[in-house]
Amino acid sequence: MEKFEISVVRAEIGSILIFTRNDVCEQIQLTEDILPEYGNNIFTRQINEYLCGERKVLDFPVRYSTGPVFEKIWSYLKENVTYGKIITYGELAKICGTSARVVGYAMASNPLPLYIPCHRVVGKDSIGGFTARNGKSMIRWKEYLLKLEGSL
Question: In what order do the strands lie in the sheet with 5-11?
Answer without folding.
Answer: 5-11, 14-21, 24-31
